[in-house]
Amino acid sequence: MKSYIIPEFLVERDDHHCIRCEVCVRQCAFDVHRYDEEEDEVFAHEDKCVGCLRCVTLCPTNALVVRDNPTRVPANANWTREVLHNIYKQAETGGVLLTGMGCDKEYRNYWDRITLDASQVTNPSIDPLREPMELRTYLGSKPDAVEIGGGRGRHELETRLAPQLRLETPIMFSALSYGAISYNTCECLARAAAEVGTCYNTGEGGLHRDLYRYGGHTICQVASGRFGVHADYLEAAAALEIKIGQGAKPGIGGHLPGEKVSEEISRTRMIPKGTDALSPAPHHDIYSIEDLAQLIYALKEATGWQKPVSVKIAAVHNSAAIASGMVRAGADIIALDGIRGGTGAAPTMIRDNVGIPIELALAAVDARLREEGIRNRASVVVAGGIRSSADVVKAVALGADAVYIGTAALVALGCHVCQKCYTGKCNWGIATQDPYLTKRLNPEVGTRRLVNLLTAWSHEIMEILGGMGINAIESLRGNRLRLRGVGLTREELDMLGIKHAGA
Amino acid sequence: MRPPGSRRRARGKAGGVETVLRGIRFRDDKDFSGCSIFGMMNAAGRRFDGAPMLTAIANMKERSNGLGGGFAAYGIYPEYADLYCFHVMYGDEAGKRETEDFLAANFSVEQAEVIPTSACDGVSDAPLLWRYFAQPREANVSACEMEDPDDFMVQAVMRINADIDGAFTFSSGKNMGVFKGVGFPEDIGRFFRLDEYEGYIWVAHGRFPTNTQAWWGGAHPFNILDWSVVHNGEISSYGINQRHLEMYGYKCTLYTDTEVIAYAVDLLVRRHGLSVADMAGVLAAPLWEDIDRMPPRERELHTALRQTYGSLLLNGPFSVIVSNLSQMIGLTDRIRLRPLVAGRNGDWMYLSSEEAPMHLVDASLTETWIPSGGEPIIFQLREPAASREGVEAWGGAAV
Ligand code: SF4
Ligand code: SF4
Fold first, then answer.
1. Where are the alpha helices (DSSP H) in A6-80?
2. Is B259 a residue whose pLDDT tops 90?
3. B218-246 tens-digit pLDDT
4. Which of A95, A117, A134 is the last residue of a domain?
5. Nearest-neighbour CA in chain B from A119: distance (Å)
6. Chain A: residue nearest B26 by CA?
7. What ipTM does this complex have?
8. Are the CB atoms for A265 and A432 separated by under 8 Å?
9. CATH code at A48?
10. Is A146 on the interface with B (CB under 8 A)?
């Protein structure tokens, strides 16, 4: 069938610059570039280009430009190129539209509508280069009060705190499963988390044996498919996370196609090689809140009550009420994943239309837990579209204890957010299992890049805190007075619990 | 989050009344001010009048601008030592009527009287100032399912301050009282005739708000039960301190950081039973790098305190004097961005923003020192004040 889809990108090659080295030919897993020996020329199949810019980045002579195809479908606010293309695709295949990464639609990004405060005159700002500046964060359930042995001469802690996860910076790596991403990517995340003193999250793909040694910095997920969940796996983790939902695809499960299930993945996930790994939409042992309580209890019991248990949900309309139930069910950490949260593969319509922005969910959950007087009983971690240290600061000030970053971490490793992760052909060696591609990501270099990113963000957070006259992150957490909205409606401001700039 | 004064405004009450008491004209996040603080106590419990306090605080005039001054004095009402004493300011008769009805319904009021004042240059537009010596009615306390009359008292204060237009309780302890208003502190002291009171602990405050709208309720000290706080500084963590305290029923009606300190102290020491030293370990918590170097038990303790009470860490520049019937406690922020000097001469103890006023009131004082950031200075009566139950328990827990 002739495809009616016009190429999204144009690939332009400056023939004077091109030295026919064929780097682009070898680098492109989508087979865009082709060298014709007879003509001694490199040609491009532009219809195959996904815009990942691997070739542009690696071309030794900067001969390549990939740009948006300026050819327009007839101007129409409703029947845009994207809409038409989606329909053509479905007319040609009869299938569900698939995509990768997070929602790319223009739902209001509240981080960009919030500004931060700084000290002037009445309150000195603090120079983080000269004064201590503390980002250490503990995730886990806190008591309302600490009891200290009274009586004369005695001065001992009597309250035993629930297990806590210690982070040297309030930034963790989001759940990215082995299978969706390559082993090397997992290794980079694990090593960087260990080096920085934070945690990464296994996602639902189990934990490769070789990564057990980073267990102290690993949050092991237990998802509906229970892939790779066994006693050693739980034991290896610093914390456990029950995955109920994901911001990119609330309410639906996952599907790792059989061709990606290699020998190693099969062993790690404990499924036969080459079979599809299907995570059911719900946990079939959790049909209501008391079932969740049972699973939390079971995991705690299985690990001797030594590890905090997180429960991750997609940010949806009633997140606040749901989160409250989760805390009461015994969750030590509430992880919220917003509509911009990424994924290895999701139906486009779900990714782009289900869920709510994380900013609003966070504000609602934090406020609700406070109103109910149970905010201490769980930490709140947010994910889904955190792009910079400023976003982190705003999230913490809105009420988050820490954030998860997924897309940002992959971008640090080279990802250009082409959204083709579901194809398994990631030219950056991230979202693929093809050995030819995965070896492009050197664990040494990748680890360095991630460590650098977290180090840079942490410095920036310190700088911002210092400007506010604050020297410990806990004085920012939930401190919404240090935020102001710009160009937001009354209702949005109320929902975020912040004032408008100028007030 | 309800913006300051919104409900009152909605009711359309005369703005002037509330302005004097609560300064609602500006809806700043909180009150910004710089200040002088001074505290003096006799550890033997010997009572002395307020005259030296006026001398001391007047010596730091540079630090205030005439927009607020106040005092707290302990041991001044021995004849009513067992009764709570409400000091209330009223903007109008209606507020007074409503408050007195509320008090009559919940307390047995043994004595109600005007707080004596005398006209004084530099003090004008005073609200009506009344005091009531009262005991909560037992039936009312148990109806609220409260065991501790102190809890009932706290709720009563919150109720009046948040819900009754034109009324503001600014002192609610036993055998102690707060006197404060708009003016230079020495003028406020004369206005309230403080040379006629005798107490064994006195603290004073002169205020330099950035806010030109002066209001009586906004002056220091801030008080809840017998806790009083005078404060120099600004709390950058105010937003979260306030939200944390709200979870425990404290309504921050004044939008000042000092109020937050008073409630935090009440929560930590009275309700959660921490020692004063541990309270200081929360409000001006040691740095993690110092905690990590502590011996195991201490490390465990301070780690737990920070983990649990991180939201009560006071961040930003401050020095405060926190006082109660038995103690006078000085504390600065952990990197010591505001001044505090301590002094001792036998039974006489001093805490001050500056050293000079201590020498001014005590010519024979020689022992003075500057505490380091976050280090609490705890001055205690040799015999804890007996009029308050439980005093012994927490007094003894101090280290
Ligand atoms: S990588 Fe650049 S120089 Fe090499 S063949 Fe491709 S376009 Fe030419
Ligand atoms: S991970 Fe790879 S495939 Fe996915 S968006 Fe990034 S570059 Fe594209």
1. 23-27, 54-58
2. no
3. 888 999 999 999 988 888 899 999 999 99
4. A95
5. 8
6. A503
7. 0.89
8. no
9. 3.30.70.20
10. yes
* Residue A54 near ligand 1, beta carbon < 6 Å: no
Which DSSP state fits B271? I
Q: Where are the domains of chain B?
A: 34-393
Contact: B236, A376; criterion CB under 8 Å: no
Q: Which residue has the tokens 């009083």?
A: B228
pLDDT-flagged residues of chain A (< 70): 150-154
A38 and A175 both lie in a single domain: no
Residues A89 and A173 occupy one common structural domain: no
User: Which residues of chain B lie closer than 8 angstroms to A475, CB-CB?
Assistant: 236-237, 240, 310, 313-316
Report the predicted TM-score, pTM, of the whole model to 2 decimal places. 0.89
* Chain A neighbors of B276, CB-CB under 8 A: none
Q: What's the pLDDT at B116? A: 96
Same domain, residue pair A372 and A453: yes
Structural domain tally of chain A? 2
Q: Which of B191, B217, B180, B200 is nearest to B37 (CA)?
A: B180
- Better-predicted residue by pLDDT, B91 or B18: B91
Contacts of A96 (CB under 8 A, 6+ apart): A347, A349
CB atoms near residue A93 (< 10 Å) = 11
Ligand 1 within 6 A of A369 CB? no
Per-residue model confidence as pLDDT tens digits over A128-152:
988 899 999 999 999 999 998 866 5
Residues of B in contact with A164 (CB under 8 A): 307
Ligand 1 within 6 A of A34 CB?
no
Each residue's pLDDT tens digit, A76-86: 999 999 999 99
Q: Which residues numbered 428-487 in A keep a CB inside 8 Å of some CB on B? A: 468-472, 474-482
- DSSP E strand stretches across A2-75: 9-13, 33-36, 41-44, 64-68
Report CB contact under 8 Å: A145, B239: no
pLDDT score, position A119:
86
Q: Per residue in A32-60, pLDDT tens?
A: 999 999 999 999 999 999 999 999 999 99
Contact, A339 vs A247, CB < 8 A?
yes
The answer to whether position A487 is within a domain reads: yes
Choose which CATH entry (3.30.70.100, 3.60.20.10, 1.10.8.60, 3.10.450.10) describes domain B34-393.
3.60.20.10
A259 and A404 housed in the same domain: yes
Three-class SS state of B390: coil
A66 lines ligand 1 (CB under 6 A): no
Q: Is B144 a catalytic residue?
A: no
| Structure confidence by residue, pLDDT tens digits, B275-300 | 888 999 999 999 999 999 999 999 99
Task: State whether A175 and A67 are in the same domain.
Answer: no
Residue A358 amino acid letter: I
A89/A208 same-domain check = no
Residue A42: domain span: 9-95
pLDDT of res. B19: 58
Domain boundary among A95, A124, A144: A95
Q: Are B269 and B231 in contact (CB under 8 A)?
A: no
